[in-house]
Amino acid sequence: MTSTTTQNSKRIFAPGGTNSSPQAQQYTKGSLEKDQLVSDPLEQFHTWFAHARSENVHQPETVNFATAALPSGRVSARMVYLKELDSRGFVIYSNWATSRKAADVASNPYAALTFWWHELERQVRVEGKVERLSSEESQVYYDTRIRGSRLGAWASEQSKVLRGREELENRVKDVEERFQGEEKIPVPEFWGGLRVVPEMVEFWQGRESRLHDRFCYTKDEGKESGWKIERLSP
Prior knowledge:
By secondary structure, this protein is of the alpha+beta class. The chain contains 6 helices and 9 strands.
């Protein structure tokens, strides 16, 4: 088989950037040096996130949340929203009874987050142990959701197979009847916040020729800040 035949059999091969070039898009919007970083990765993330918002990055809270089941080691990932950053870590909200991620973290309490901000050519990766927020903590965020989303959290057995859309809509109707006339809806016990407590945080700035700037924070109790910062090869 010739190389031409092999190449023609590929559905996608070496897609270029947005300018129809056969080469990958070059990143030229910034650089990153160690002296630009603060000692605490959560504070550094807060700074970068605030900058992303000020630069009108589209939904900078969008993040890939990856988990893995044990003992199989099978990995799954999905896009979610970061809803909180506090002194302990990064908080997302979801169903923790029936979803795939719920099963994963039940067997393996570690997860990873990846933020990608195209407009700034920046990426942030987080790895750490997960912990559930209390119902009282989760209620605070739950109360900010529109009524339909609060009812939807009760109605959806996330990731379970549906016979059709009608089944889901009927479940929503049942929940609407249950809470009819009630503005204060309690957060479901199976739904709420999950915090990723970071053990590693990487800040990535795109550079030309794929020679990106990467700095990794890892836990180091010997440091006053509790973190060690190292530059990584791209």
